[in-house]
Specification:
With 140 residues, the chain is an all-alpha fold. The protein has 6 helices and no strands.
Length: 140
């Protein structure tokens, strides 16, 4: 019996429209894994219990409130889900990050603060780790 290696290339974004592809190359919501479903439900519950009931506090920029929410999300393992592990993230796949972003979309103005926090922290880590002459670029 011959061993066969499966070499599957993931399509990015709308590449399935431009490149030859097979239906199996395109993710559909019905293929969501149990882990992805749990993450999605965790984010949805957080939005509905922690963010939406407090939208006025968020919109009025109550001091310390948004950072407190981001800290709670970090404790749940949601902050930095898309960031490389080398920079403190957990490097989840693009589909899982899409589910997180989709659920966060219901959070109003908080949905702007949420993705900026880990992105800025990662960029700062990249810059601080580089030699002084090369700090003009941030690689992630």
């Amino acid at each position: 019996m011959q061993d066969t290696t499966l070499n599957q290339v993931a399509l990015r974004g709308g590449e399935f429209l431009l490149r030859p592809s097979q239906p199996a190359d395109v993710f559909i919501p019905e293929e969501i894994s149990e882990e992805q479903r749990m993450i999605r439900e965790t984010v949805r519950e957080f939005v509905h219990t922690e963010i939406l009931p407090n939208w006025e506090r968020i919109d009025k920029q109550e001091e310390g409130f948004v950072p407190g929410l981001i800290k709670k999300l970090a404790e749940l393992g949601i902050v930095g889900a898309h960031m490389p592990e080398a920079y403190g993230g957990i490097a989840l796949d693009n589909n899982t990050n899409t589910f997180i972003t989709e659920e966060m979309g219901a959070s109003g103005s908080f949905s702007v603060s949420f993705p900026l926090t880990p992105g800025l922290a990662c960029c700062r880590s990249c810059i601080m780790a580089q030699k002084p002459k090369s700090r003009n670029t941030c690689r992630g």
